[in-house]
Amino acid sequence: MELSMIVLAGLALLCPLFFVWKLLNQWRDPGGCYIIGYECHKPAEDRKLDTEQCGDIIKRNKNLTLEDYRFLLRMFVRAGIGEETYGPRNIIAGREDSPTLTDAISEMEEFFFETLDKLFAKTGVSPSEINILVLNVSMLAPTPSLAARIINHYKMREDIKVFNISGMGCSASVVSLSAIQNIFISHKDSLAIMVTAESMAPNWYTGKDRSMILTNCLFRSGGCSILLTNKPSLKGRALFKLKHLVTTNLGAIDEAYQCAMQTEDEHGRKGFNLNKSLPSVAARGMIENLKVMAPKVLPIREQVRYIVSRYVKKWRKGKGVHVEGEESKGGVNFKTGVDHFCLHAGGRAVIDGVGESLRLSEFDLEPTRMALYRFGNTSASSLWYVLSYMEAKKRLKKGDRVMMISFGAGFMCNSCLWEVVRDLEDENVWKDCLERYPPKTLVNPFMEKFSWINDENLNETMLEAFRMM
Length: 469
Prior knowledge:
Blueprint: H1 2-26, E1 34-40, H2 51-60, H3 66-79, H4 89-92, H5 101-123, E2 132-137, H6 146-154, E3 161-165, H7 172-186, E4 191-197, H8 210-218, E5 223-229, E6 240-249, H9 254-258, E7 260-264, E8 270-274, H10 278-297, H11 300-319, H12 326-329, E9 340-343, H13 348-357, H14 362-375, H15 382-392, E10 401-408, E11 412-420, H16 445-450, H17 460-468
Parallel strand pairs: 2-3, 2-4, 9-10
Antiparallel strand pairs: 1-5, 1-6, 4-5, 6-11, 7-8, 10-11
Helix pairs in contact: 3-8, 14-15
């Protein structure tokens, strides 16, 4: 009997200890993933797409009707981009109808070597020290791979672990991070390079399908190279530490799979189709993703408050009691566990939608809006332009927590949480223009230049004159 009591007492003691161990295990450092440095691409000045240049490109498309021109103007007005974004050289030269493989490779290599040269110089790390290379470019997969071109150019080591990711769109940065995080678990004391961009040169749509021509209004050239490590000896030099990462893939649902897809129009012109179900799919993806992320990032008090508020709301609904304003107060407050929000700069509507869902202020959304206005939607690399804006504005202090949220084809919603390891104020891609941001008012240059095209009295003769300007 005494032995049984001792066993029971031991179990009673071990059970809470086991619970505590499980809890700590859930919050443990998943592989120790740190950012040592990152460099966003700033293309050459002759690649800027100002209003005049955009107008010329639009006028070259002889497939458009007057209504199509008006539609494009409205999309430019709503897009939230300025006139300092960048495009591929073949588009600026007027060869969007006949892009070559050389155009595509040149666009990528110009970005690769500009950012990687700066990254290696700034961090003092040699290309021969890199153990892992993960590259994501969704719409270009040549042979040899783009990753192989980087390895050849920098003469990297023979045993480098290399991964070339394609087809994941704007969400690919966090997917690449997930791959590196998992590799770090089994490969200690390693250095990894992550390269993230999109190929615009061969993917400019030249038709008139409105669900496909939207991408011409939003997507611009850009990219980022990031140096990561799990070396204990380099933690003191780190900028950020990866705390949590969650990927959500809705690809099994037909509507989600088809809402953002590279395809051809009825005339065989290749483009990227964004259909009307995209907003609802993105909302569903974000909800599913944040269900998993929320318990990892929110303090216990906020989780308890949310659970209690849900049950109180259900009870009141059952009793037929309605409290004015209750709906707006019922959601999770992510700002209780996150200091900065680094959102995908997919377009003004995307930013507005995510901001409203997470109850973010204009101060919270400013970095994303400015990245969109200055650089456009640079696909998977847009998160890093947003992050570099925060750093340039000296918002990132030691201990701050930064949450990244991205969306992409598949359909995917991915998020991750970074902890700032030290106060950050390094110069970056914003250094030459930071003083102008945020402007007092976000003037839309496209409306100022081409507002007359909205005149309902325009006829086909005037339209032809517009084409000939």
